């Protein structure tokens, strides 16, 4: 990542915070842009990194499959609460202090993961990780738009998928090839988060600091009147793509290992989420010049075809076909999410960016977290992951049909 530094003059629309004026030099705007994109990527990589270890934790500590679902759900709930209470904070105190605090909290969560010796430590680490990620995603996303609205919209679509793809596969690869992986992966990520916090200190503030920071902590989903209609129109696309992401995050690794006859490795189990997020990131790059409405239509169609293919693969017990369906569904993930973001981003003012992005991610994480927790509960009580997968997959297909109908009707 380029970190060349230079002195920059704040734009007329962004007044730097008083706390930053004594710093004699700053990261260049391009370096600051890359830094904030890397933070979103890093936070999402950190959130998916523990996933390959869950089976190891379960064997070592002897907790039930239901508690595995709780470990997943706790993170999603923590992110939601952080978005509700702190999603608007950077619009009031600035992007820098929020991002510095969030990066240091992420580093602390890595330390808790590395030293965990029981389920309580795992849940605590997920809570700290979720709270800091929720606050940071809104602040970094708004900071990217402050610097460049066009590239910021692309980065906000791309970075979460790249982070999700990298985190789980990185952890799985370390388990297979490197010593002490359950400590090494967290140590590497912890160092990255500390370095990011240091670099943010040298970043120019891009938000116009204003009063009302304490009042902004009162939960309120703030959506400007001109954004409400478009947000309702893209909500089906947001819900469908993130529900599908929850399907793969909660059931994907176990399903893929089961389809391979139980002979799958940790890397193979991690590859489902990697293929999904990787194809989504590639789709974002390839289709970045399409109109938002075309992206929404393409996303709904690809999601429908991809999930139908994946469900057929479960019935036929074909892991290769499952990965093919996953790749097609990932195209739907990337294009659908990008279309929804670009529809909304062009309508919001600078001082509303973090608040509106917080609302978008609240919808997204609700769609991802609640069905995934329900799926885990179903597996634990039905005893059949295939039956739960059919139910979950059918729900995603129905949501994709609704999103596609909405785009065609428009």
Automatic annotation (TrEMBL):
Keywords: Cell membrane, Membrane, Transmembrane, Transmembrane helix, Transport
Coiled coil: none
Keyword Hydrolase: no
Localization per record: Cell membrane
Primary localisation category: membrane
Gene3D superfamilies the UniProt entry points to: MFS general substrate transporter like domains
Protein name as catalogued: MFS transporter
